[in-house]
Design brief:
By secondary structure, the protein is an alpha+beta fold. The chain has 12 helices and 24 strands. A hairpin with a 7-residue loop joins strand 16 and strand 17. Strands 4-3-8-7 form a 4-stranded antiparallel beta sheet, with no helix packed on it. The longest helix has 20 residues.
């Protein structure tokens, strides 16, 4: 261990109390690569179900149902999905699950750390994952407006206030409101919006619309009725009909997270759940898909594809890739390589090798490089991103406004010719 660190052997509960009593102290934990990463927060929370996991050599650990471990291929796996003989990773290689049993415990302790979120918390070397839903958009908004606040409506109860510290959002700038049904949420958000005026910097997240039941659905369950709820779509449409004009007139930003399902057509399409209300009211709709990012046969992360389902500014149907790796987190150059090749800013002089293009002369410049090396080369991407022609090419291919402007100019020219 680095001599600058003092080793602490403790339980999660005692560590939670230690942090509460030492607000100004910094604490660190080991990653799966034997490095140290700062612990941003530790929280105590009530859990639906805890499990006692016993490994093949008798080592045991008590974990929450939604806690993540690393499987033998490097993927995240939820504790509740583990079964006997399933293998999970340690620093010394994979080990098998001997048994997994539910316990009566209800309190768990969770830590928040930076990417890659993998950590090791004991000498045994079992590799854990710190789960945290990204609030990057909200953080960017709060960073841009120092007086901004975040209204976070939570129907999934997977986020505590301590999680916001993970990415630097001060909890005194967050109003975290649990919600259990659509009607409750409608009354709450309308009451909040009525007190706001245009110019107030408020960012709203609803996590999630797709997980919200209607009041009738809740009442039917309480009365042991299993009839289908035909009111949910109508309730959601009413909700969006009420809040949409308020959000627009007061210039507020709201991101509702929703679910999708596949149509029953011969060629299935993605359908936004909850009827037409959420779809018609949205200025932009992103449908996010996922595939595995591999290094050879090993899974190294995930490739997320953002499909622009609806937009007032970006060409609909556009697909924007984002790569997230377990070891380094979000790849900030995601998708740019393919765009560079398509736009003629990167060429392949020989199989498997690539070079920059001098856009003034059309000649290939710089060293020949493999794609993998290019994706890590700051100088290579700085050259492309600082080129005004690359920005112009991106806008001409993705921005709706330029297409409209061009059409208007063409129509004006036709009218001028007719008048002449």
């Amino acid at each position: 261990m680095n001599e600058d660190f003092e080793k602490i052997i403790t339980t999660y509960k005692d560590f939670f109390n230690l942090v509460q009593n030492n607000k100004n102290a910094d604490f660190y934990i080991k990653t799966h690569k034997d490095e140290f990463t700062k612990i941003n927060a530790v929280c105590e929370k009530e859990i639906n179900q805890m499990y006692l996991i016993t490994l093949e050599d008798g080592h045991s650990i008590n974990c929450a149902d939604e806690h993540c471990l690393m499987d033998k291929r490097g993927n995240m796996i939820l504790v509740k999905d583990l079964v006997p003989n399933k293998r999970v990773m340690t620093l010394n290689g994979p080990v098998s699950i001997k048994s997994i049993k539910k316990t009566n415990d209800k309190i768990a302790y969770d830590i928040s750390i930076e990417y890659p979120h993998w950590y090791v918390n004991d000498n045994y070397g079992l590799i854990h994952h710190n789960t945290l839903f990204s609030l990057v958009a909200a953080k960017a908004y709060l960073d841009f407006y120092p007086d901004a606040v975040l209204l976070f409506f939570d129907s999934e109860f997977g986020t505590t206030k301590n999680y916001f510290g993970q990415i630097g959002i001060p909890t005194d700038r967050v109003l975290h409101t649990p919600i259990t049904n659509i009607e409750e949420f409608k009354f709450d958000i309308v009451a909040q919006l009525e007190h706001l005026k245009k110019g107030d910097h408020v960012f709203i997240i609803i996590d999630s619309i797709g997980n919200l039941a209607s009041k009738k659905e809740v009442e039917d369950a309480a009365n042991q009725k299993s009839v289908a709820d035909m009111t949910r779509a109508r309730s959601l449409k009413s909700l969006f009909r009420i809040i949409t004009p308020i959000l627009i007139l007061k210039d507020l930003t709201a991101i509702p997270i929703n679910h999708i399902y596949q149509s029953q057509d011969f060629y299935p399409t993605d359908i936004i759940s909850g009827g037409k209300g959420p779809y018609l009211s949205s200025n932009a709709i992103w449908i996010i898909g996922r595939s595995k990012e591999k290094d050879g046969a090993d899974v190294a992360g995930y490739n997320f594809t953002i499909k622009i389902e609806k937009s007032r500014t970006v060409v609909e149907g556009s697909k924007l890739p984002v790569t997230v790796r377990f070891d380094t987190g979000i790849d900030k150059y995601s998708g740019l390589f393919d765009l560079g090749v398509e736009g003629g800013f990167i060429v392949s002089p020989s199989m498997g090798f690539y070079q920059l293009v001098d856009t003034d002369t059309g000649e290939a410049i710089g060293n020949k490089m493999r794609k993998k090396a290019i994706m890590k080369d700051e100088t290579f991407w700085t050259t492309i991103l600082s080129n005004p022609k690359f920005d112009d090419w991106i806008q001409s291919n993705f921005k709706i406004g330029k297409t409209f402007t061009k059409k208007v100019e063409e129509n004006d020219q036709e009218e001028t010719e007719e008048n002449d």
